[in-house]
Amino acid sequence: MMYKTVKSAANAEFVEKKSRFISHVLPVKTEQEALDFINQHKSKYWDATHNVYAYVLRENNIQRYSDDGEPSGTAGVPVLDVIRKEGLCDAAIVVTRYFGGTLLGAGGLVRAYTKSAKLGVDEAGIVTMSMCGIYEVTVDYDLLGKAQNTIAEHGSRIESSEYKENVVLEVVVSQEDGFKEKLIDALNGRVRINKTGEKFLPVER
Question: 59, 72, 92, 199: which could form a disulfide with 34 (CB 3.0–4.6 Å)?
Fold first, then answer.
């Protein structure tokens, strides 16, 4: 199970016919997080002409947008379309506009808001999130090096190591098929492997 979202919070800015467009991008998990983000920027840029927004959430497949006073379909929808076309979810974008005195027209507004949102997404970066298994791997000290190498060869990563009577590794496994078997085989059965949970984590591409 995988999905794409923005990697981090980011801002981007450009000027079109003296109108200043500032995009703000944030990865979010819930609708409340998205709304808090939007309200934060509405407060910060209270003197702006418009604070247009859009967000898409995996939870309940929520998609929302607002033109915030711009002509219908010229602002919020283009911002939402950028999120959709990039295949993103759990992402929110606010585009702040300071009017520069020159009307852009409907087509000009669509292009400007699309460009602003895309610049913000490019600045934030895109990351693929994958459902990963979290495993506790316990090995003897003399097998630690071999265990580390086998885990790395499988494409998994060690999140933490605890040194007790044995070494206890917390391992994030994105490809769970064959993980336990490969480790047991490499260590001749001298290993204890327990799955402790799972969660979405970024996957390197």
Answer: 92
Return the ∠ at Cα 100 (arms to 95 and 103), rounded to 5°: 90
Q: pTM score, two decimals?
A: 0.80
Distance of CA 123 to the CA centre of its chain: 13
Please name the residue that has the structure tokens 């199970």: 1
- Give the CATH number of the domain where residue 111 resides: 3.30.230.30
Which residues pair with residue 194 across a beta bridge? 136
Phi, psi of 38 (to 5 degrees): -65, -50
State which of 76, 109, 124 marks the end of a domain. 124
Q: Report pLDDT for 59.
A: 87
On the CB side of 159, CA atoms within 13 Å amount to 12
Tally of domains in the chain: 2
Contact in structure between 53 and 94 (CB atoms under 8 Å): yes
Domain span holding position 75:
2-124
Residues in the chain: 205
105/10 same-domain check: yes
d(CA 30, CA 87): 18
Which amino acid would we find at residue 52? V
Task: Give per-residue pLDDT as tens, 41-88.
Answer: 999 999 999 999 999 999 889 999 999 999 999 999 999 999 999 999
